[in-house]
C-alpha cells in the first residue's frame, strides 16, 4: 500500500539552484515561463514578507483531513516545500502552530496549502513561509488515506514532486523540473532588460513604438493615427 500511495524518493534540487532561484521575483519567473505556472491568486502568504524557494513535495488529501500531511512531514527532507492539494476547502484548517513547529524541526522550507490554516497569529512569522487560501479555526480530521509524491493540482497548477517552488508577496510560481535551467537563464536576461527599461523611463526617454503598433493591431487606432 505504501509503495502505491507514497513516493518519497525523488531527486531534490541542488542548493545552488535553489539559491539562484530565490534571487528572482515570482513575477519575473512567471513572465519568462510564458505566463504559466503561477498559482491562482487565492494562494497568498500569511505575511507579505514571506518568501520561499524549494523542492516540491506534493500531498493529496481529502478536504478537511490532514492525516497525509503528518506523514509527509515525517518523510520530508531539508529544503522541501510541502505543496498540499486541499481541494480549495476552507471549512477547516489543515495545519496550525504545532504542525508548523514540526516542519521547522524537519528543516522544511515552507508550506503551500490550497486550503485553510489556523493559529495565524502564531505562525505569521517570516522565518517560516506559509502560503494558503485563508484561515479557519476548525480543526481537521485525521482519518482518510491520500497520496504523497504524486502529481497534484494546487491553485489551478499541476505540481509534481521535484518541481521548483518559488513564492513571495505576489504568490507562488511552479517551474517544472525539466525547464528549470532554461527558466533561470531567461530570468537573468529579463532582470537586466527590465533594469534597462526602468533606467530609460527615469532618464525621460520616450516609449518605443510597440504601444502604437499594438493599439493599431487591436483596432483602437487607424493605421495613420498615433496617440499624440
UniProtKB/TrEMBL annotation:
Keyword ATP-binding: no
Cofactors, names only: a divalent metal cation; Mg(2+)
Keywords associated with the record: Lyase, Magnesium, Metal-binding
Binding residues for Mg(2+): 119
GO MF annotations in UniProt: lyase activity; metal ion binding
Entry-linked InterPro entries: RraA/RraA-like, RraA/RraA-like_sf
CDD domains per UniProt: RraA_family
Alphabetical list of Gene3D superfamilies matching this protein: Ribonuclease E inhibitor RraA/RraA-like
Amino acids binding substrate: 96-99, 118
Protein's UniProt name: Putative 4-hydroxy-4-methyl-2-oxoglutarate aldolase
Amino acid at each position: 500500500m505504501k509503495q502505491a500511495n507514497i513516493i518519497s524518493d525523488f531527486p531534490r534540487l541542488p542548493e545552488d539552484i535553489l539559491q539562484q532561484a530565490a534571487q528572482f521575483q515570482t513575477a519575473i519567473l512567471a513572465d519568462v515561463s510564458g505566463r504559466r505556472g503561477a498559482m491562482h491568486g487565492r494562494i497568498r502568504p500569511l505575511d507579505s514578507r514571506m518568501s520561499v524557494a524549494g523542492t516540491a513535495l506534493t500531498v493529496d488529501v481529502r478536504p478537511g483531513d490532514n492525516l497525509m500531511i503528518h506523514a509527509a512531514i515525517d518523510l520530508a527532507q531539508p529544503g522541501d516545500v510541502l505543496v498540499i492539494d486541499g481541494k480549495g476547502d476552507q471549512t477547516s484548517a489543515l495545519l496550525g502552530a504545532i504542525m508548523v513547529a514540526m516542519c521547522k524541526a524537519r528543516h522544511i522550507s515552507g508550506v503551500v496549502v490550497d486550503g485553510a490554516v489556523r493559529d495565524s497569529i502564531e505562525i505569521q512569522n517570516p522565518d517560516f513561509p506559509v502560503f494558503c487560501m485563508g484561515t479557519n479555526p476548525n480543526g481537521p480530521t485525521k482519518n482518510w488515506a491520500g497520496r504523497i509524491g504524486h502529481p497534484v493540482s494546487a491553485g489551478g497548477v499541476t505540481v509534481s514532486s521535484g518541481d521548483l517552488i518559488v513564492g513571495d508577496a505576489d504568490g507562488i510560481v511552479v517551474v517544472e523540473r525539466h525547464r528549470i535551467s532554461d527558466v533561470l537563464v531567461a530570468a537573468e536576461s529579463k532582470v537586466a532588460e527590465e533594469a534597462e527599461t526602468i533606467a530609460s523611463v527615469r532618464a525621460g526617454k520616450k516609449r518605443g513604438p510597440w504601444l502604437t503598433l499594438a493599439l493599431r493591431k487591436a483596432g483602437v487606432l487607424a493605421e495613420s493615427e498615433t496617440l499624440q
